[in-house]
Amino acid sequence: MPDHFRRGLLTHALILVAAFALAGVDRTLGWAATVLNIVFLLFFFRHLAFAVSAARWAERDLDAPVIGVETYTPSIAVLVACKDEELVVDGMVAAMLDLSYPPDRLTVVVVDDASTDGTGAKLDAWHAANPRLKVLHRQPGAGGGKSGALNDALALVDAEIAVIFDADHQPESSVLRRLVRHFRDPRVGAVMGRCVVRNGVESNLASTIFIDYLSGYLVNEYGRQALFELPAYGGANCAVRTDLIRALGGWNPHTVTEDTDLTLRLLLDGYRVRYDSTAVDFEEAVLSNSRFWRQRYRWARGHQKCLRDYWRPVLRSRHLSPMEKLETILFLWVYHVPVLCGVGLVLIGLRAFGIGGASFIQMISLSALLFAGPFTELAVGLVLGRVSRKAVWMLVGFIPAFGMSILTATKAYADGMWGTTYSWSKTARSGATSAVVAAPAPAVPERAAA
For the sheet containing 238-241, what is the strand order? Predict the structure, then answer.
């Protein structure tokens, strides 16, 4: 498979030029607007369906009693990949060691992926004080990013279930029992829990991301679970069968979104991902626009690659019904939609100046559909998240965030199609709201008796 799709870009450009020549600019732009209206309308109804299902059933599920988690205890290996994470690693390790699960059924492995700061020393100090914590130090140039680190950790363990967290995560103590209970069903290959932003008060951007997570987990993923039983494996606060991930060749080191890639491989192999909204884990949101850009660019770049890699196998899959295939394709299109939104905004601007054969007023339906679906999910997420009344004003912050998502997704699309080289890039942390836990001090040998 080529590492670029420049021929595809050229084909698109030639089709557009031919359409301008044969049908004229106004008619071509009119048809383009019609196609965009259809796409946005389809995604609007998808957003609306998720919002309605979450508003109807999610709160009841969040408050439902948890039954039977004590009687099913498969062996678990908790795996965490760290690279230059000295600001958050202490809080993460303390949370891992505080997880409620039978000690003889639990292994915790933290990978120091050739860190250049104090991460490795802190992990070694924790290991010295708590031998049940295993630390793996990778050498510089080991490669594979997060996927490579997780694959190396997986080779060290002999457990039935692997549970993955990121270095800035601090899960609730009950999260393991809530995640693994779903593996009683042999059809379930992986389980995803709910991630909550813990530093939403640190900046306006963090507040925006806090609401984005409420919508993403309490509405979008809940809706995919309730309507299609097709939630995604999210990459952290997630569990997967170790025999299955080994049979699939491990986490894919050739993608920067190993979570989306694994979701597709599981579905194509006939397994399902389950979502548990009561398995709660707290993580840190980025605080600056530059970090937000790098993070969302990576997500878009990897997700778009998954669409290019898997849309044909999805359509051919015998494990998915026609409706499930449609939903999976729409899921894969999520990071292409901002690109189309950018095209839609350009068409709105052109028609405002009389280009495109229609008036500006006739484009209101298009511009409304750009925002209506996502904001419906955001509003329901605020309700389900039981936030304060004033938090509704945080929705205003999504207007510039929406604009940035258009830019990041469009650049990711152009770079991916052109074949611009890109490798896994970690998200920098602030550590400001990480649990205040210090790494254990190194043991001091006792002096010999005089």
Answer: 133-138, 106-113, 76-82, 161-166, 238-241, 188-197, 272-283, 170-171
This prediction has a pTM of 0.90
Query: Is 92 part of a structural domain of the chain?
Result: yes
Greatest Cα pair distance, the chain, in angstroms, is: 100
Q: What are the phi and psi torsion angles at 398 (to 5°)?
A: -80, -15
Domain that holds residue 354: 13-58+334-418
Local structure of 238: helix, strand or coil? strand
DSSP track, 194-218: EEEES-TTS-HHHHHHHHHHHHIII
The 8 Å CB, 24+ separation contacts for 395-398 are: 395/211, 397/204, 397/205, 397/207, 397/208, 397/211, 398/208, 398/211, 398/212, 398/374
Number of structural domains found in the chain: 2
Q: What are the structure tokens assigned to 39, written together?
A: 């796409």
| CA dist 73 → 96, 161, 182, 186 (Å) | 17, 10, 11, 15
Asked if 261 and 409 sit in the same domain, the reply is: no
- Would you call 45 exposed, middle or buried from its count of C-beta atoms within 10 A (0-12, 13-18, 19+)? exposed
- Give dist(CA 347, CA 29) in Å, integer: 7
The 10s digit of each residue's pLDDT in 210-243 is 989 999 999 999 999 999 999 999 989 999 999 9
SS3 (DSSP) at 188:
strand
Residues 264 and 406 in one domain: no
Q: For every residue of 96-118, which 3-state class applies, written as one string? A: HHCCCCCHHHEEEEEEEECCCCC
Domain assignment present for residue 444? The answer is: no
The closest alpha carbon to 335, from 369, 377, 304, belongs to 304
Instruction: Indicate if 403 and 266 belong to the same structural domain.
Output: no
| Last residue within a domain, chosen from 327, 351, 374 | 327
Decide if pLDDT at 201 tops 90: no
Q: Please state, in angstroms and rounded to a whole number, the distance separating the CA atoms of residues 130 and 126.
A: 6
One domain for residues 293 and 387: no
